[in-house]
Design a protein that fits this description.
Order of helices and strands: EHEHHHHHHHHHHEEHHHHHHHHHHHH
Number of domains: 2
Shape: globular
Strand order of the largest sheet: 1-2
């Protein structure tokens, strides 16, 4: 045996003949043998639980069950990385709902760190036996590595007010960004991409329907308890005599941005080679997501869908698109200026008159005041200097009291103008790759998927200026899925052009 290796033959249909040959010399654990092993473990576990409860009471028995469940989850994550990706995307979407429902002091958010850490460990172990560094040889990957390195370098920032703030913040920057490489490594078939996108749309629909429940039925007890536990929440969430809705997310901004992403995903997929029935379904879903988005009262989100549609028109400029743009502009303009008593539409209209928005003017004034600090501190005030961690570890510092209210402003304040420059280059690289790939991809299905990812990336980048779009679950995970799929669609298209016989296999996966 050339080395110990676990390989699941059915997990990855895209393995090359060389990889399959290598796997044959390792330890192959088939689905049948896995089920036999699982049944055996469960039988032994059942006996242990029965004996434990009989002799020592309920608590030891539950501890055994919890330990075995943990072992099974750990084994699944290390062995079936596709299942791990699905679990990661699911956990990222619902973690805040679980935290609100559970209402416990246990830091459930750290479970996401552990989950990502285990998946990355499995990725590293697989690289030991099946080396594949092709994922690093593209502009997005290079810029992500540079960005992560710069954030790690912030540990030596002489102007940082707290090293502890860096420790607590770097995980949400570097650790979650590393999932990009996990997605690049394991998402290798069109079939798996389609499954993940359907899963994403299903989760978006669940979140949208939950918002409809909040709007027309009311808030659940645990939701109202969460809102009223902090006086600041009341000021932010209760506006014009109504509660801003947040669905299963921590705040209305996160909810609205995820609805925008879901709507743009539908719009991009509609451009693909699918049946009219599926196009109608996607159109209805996009309408539901945008309707639910209005409940959030997040004005920063209202401009993102028009921005995404504008990008779509520019990329596909022709006579039909021009007519669609004219009709859309007339309808949109009418919606902005028409008189109405509807509070949702009124708030929507104010998003396009920022000079009359008091909160926007306050943010602009704050940003003006902080500009001298940014210019005089090329590496910024240190990662985590603002926000929660700054207030916790350096409460007397100037930055701890500064409200960034913008993803780009936070980067500039914490990481300096050098960090802001690198961050802008990273985002530009993602968008540039998406545009170039869109025009060069020949497979229409992959082209529409790549278009969807490009529209989402473009909108989220715009949304990262008025708000912080990339710091909350699930977008701090899903955005790197978007970036990875921009590359993966191009790689799959190249593979299909080089070997057309594999095209059917990829699409049927």
């Amino acid at each position: 045996m050339s080395g110990f290796k676990i390989h699941i033959a059915k997990e990855d249909d895209s393995l090359s003949s060389i990889e399959r040959a290598r796997a044959a010399h390792g330890f192959e654990l088939s689905g049948k043998r896995f089920m036999m092993l699982l049944i055996g473990v469960l039988l032994i576990a059942g006996l242990l639980v029965a004996v434990g409860i009989a002799k020592f009471g309920m608590l030891p028995g539950l501890a055994v069950i919890g330990g075995l469940v943990g072992i099974l989850i750990l084994y699944t994550l290390l062995t079936y990385q596709k299942a791990g990706i699905v679990l990661l995307l699911t956990a990222a979407y619902f973690i805040m709902l679980v935290i609100n429902v559970a209402n416990v002091d246990f830091p459930l958010g750290t479970t996401m760190d552990a989950l990502v850490g285990i998946l990355l460990l499995a990725f590293i172990l697989r690289q030991k036996f099946q080396r594949n560094w092709e994922m690093l040889r593209n502009p997005i990957s290079i810029m992500i590595m540079i960005w992560i390195s710069y954030n790690l370098l912030q540990a030596l920032n002489p102007d940082a007010s707290s090293r502890m703030a860096w420790i607590y913040t770097v995980r949400s920057v570097a650790l979650f960004m590393l999932t990009y490489f996990l997605f690049m490594y394991k998402i290798r078939t069109v079939g798996f991409i389609k499954f993940l996108l359907k899963l994403w749309l299903a989760y978006c629909l669940f979140a949208a329907l939950w918002a409809f429940k909040q709007e027309y039925i009311g808030l659940a007890g645990f939701e109202f308890r969460s809102l009223t536990s902090n006086p600041i929440n009341i000021d932010l969430f209760f506006i014009d005599g109504r509660w801003r809705k947040f669905s299963i997310f921590p705040d209305p901004v996160t909810f609205s941005y995820n609805m925008v992403a879901g709507a743009l995903l539908c719009i991009g997929l509609i451009m693909g080679p699918i049946s009219k029935t599926k196009k109608w379904i996607l159109g209805v879903l996009a309408f539901i997501f945008l309707w639910a988005m209005l409940f959030s009262g997040t004005r920063g989100a209202y401009v993102l869908v028009p921005a995404g549609v504008f990008m779509l028109i520019v990329l596909n400029f022709n006579r039909n698109m021009l007519l669609l743009a004219i009709v859309g502009a007339i309808g949109f303009g009418t919606l902005i200026v028409m008189p109405t008593e509807n509070k949702l539409i009124k708030r929507f209209q104010t998003a396009f008159a920022p000079a009359e928005d008091a909160s926007f003017n306050v943010r602009a004034a704050n940003q003006k005041k902080i500009q001298p600090f940014i210019l005089s501190h090329p590496m910024g005030g240190g990662l985590g200097a603002t926000g929660v961690w700054g207030q916790r570890f350096a409460p007397e510092s100037m930055l701890a009291k500064f409200p960034p209210d913008s993803g780009y402003v936070r980067v500039a304040v914490e990481l300096g103008w050098i960090g802001l420059l690198l961050f802008c280059i990273l985002m530009f690289t993602i968008l540039r790759s998406g545009i170039l790939n869109y025009y060069s991809i020949k497979d229409p299905t992959l082209k529409s998927i790549g278009l969807s990812m490009l529209l989402i990336a473009f909108a989220i980048n715009i949304g990262n200026y008025p708000q912080e779009a990339l710091v909350q679950f699930p977008m701090n995970i899903y955005f790197y899925l978007v970036a990875a799929l921009i590359n993966i669609t191009k790689q799959l298209d190249i593979a299909q052009q080089e070997n057309p016989l594999t095209s059917t296999v990829h699409h049927a996966a």
